Amino acid sequence: MEFQDVKLETKAYSLYYGDFRALKSVDIQIPRNAITAIIGPSGCGKSTFLRTFNRMNDLISGVRVDGDVFIDEHNVFAMDPVELRFCVGMVFQRPNPFPKSIFDNVAYGPRSHGIRDRAELAEIVEKSLRGAVLWDEVKDDLNKSGLALSGGQQQRLCIARALAVEPDVILMDEPASALDPVATLKIEELIQQLKREYTIVIVTHNMQQAARASDYTAFFMMDEDRAGYLVEHGPTQRMFTNPQEEITERYITGRFG
Q1: Alpha helices in the chain (DSSP H)
Q2: CA-CA 20 to 30 A from 71: which of 36, 89, 199, 223?
Q3: What residue spans of 113-221 are helical by DSSP H?
């Protein structure tokens, strides 16, 4: 599927762990200021594909890639990975706040970028916590440890930490899988608000979450060699009501296997 305003793109992209091909010739365009969900069975390379866009896979020994990956038509493999990760924020499956205060969690990235002025940091922290819909809950306890927050609050703190460096893209790897239903709904509502300013790519095993929270859905499967490949990609409503491929319909309706 092709878009007029593309934020992220892969062309003939494959990834290998040593001799094992984990991803096979993925071609996809991801539009700006939209939520794209990546779905598929366990082991099909969803998280590996997600981490392509901020080159987190570079940290794994023996990884090599073929093909091209772009952000705003810039090849990510030609970019400095540290700078790339400031442009492409990441929120992981389990909340992982630093063992620091709420304030210092959010200020960590800006400080790494050389910002030292306390007033400027305070402004960034407030803006980021407001962006993560957490400010009103913690504004009187900014010196409290981030680890003392509830699970849902911790995940929103991690989102605020990602927002603090003003990324263009936010990658989310199963961001609500460790949360209760109420906290999950808050995260989904937050993601809807964030897409006004950010391009969001989310990996989820939860079909209902993908249907509720995303604008576009990409379905990955494994071939006979267990390499992950893109089956199809399109508007979420079409993918869930009229997929082009029979295997997509079988997976979405729970008749897979």
Answers
A1: 46-50, 81-87, 102-112, 118-131, 135-138, 151-163, 181-194, 207-213, 236-241, 246-252
A2: 223
A3: 118-131, 135-138, 151-163, 181-194, 207-213
Task: Please report, for the domain that includes residue 18, its CATH number.
Answer: 3.40.50.300
Residue 118 belongs to some domain of the structure: yes
Structural domains in the chain (count): 1
The answer to whether residues 239 and 37 touch, using CB atoms and an 8 Å cutoff, is no
- Angle of the 151-163 helix axis to the 102-112 helix axis, nearest 10: 20
pLDDT band of 1, cuts 50, 70, 90 = low
Q: What does the alpha-carbon distance between residue 104 and residue 31 come to, in Å, rounded to a whole number?
A: 33
- Is 25 exposed, middle or buried (CB count within 10 Å of its CB: 0-12, 13-18, 19+)? middle
Other C-beta atoms within 10 Å of 156: how many?
Answer: 27
177 pLDDT higher than 90 = no
> Residue 198 falls within a domain, yes or no?
yes
pLDDT tens per residue across span 182-219 = 888 999 999 999 999 999 999 999 999 999 999 999 99
Q: Is residue 1 part of a domain?
A: no
**Does the residue 243 lie in any domain?**
yes
Q: Give the C-alpha separation, 109 to 159, whole Å.
A: 12
Q: Structural domain of residue 203, as residue ranges?
A: 6-252
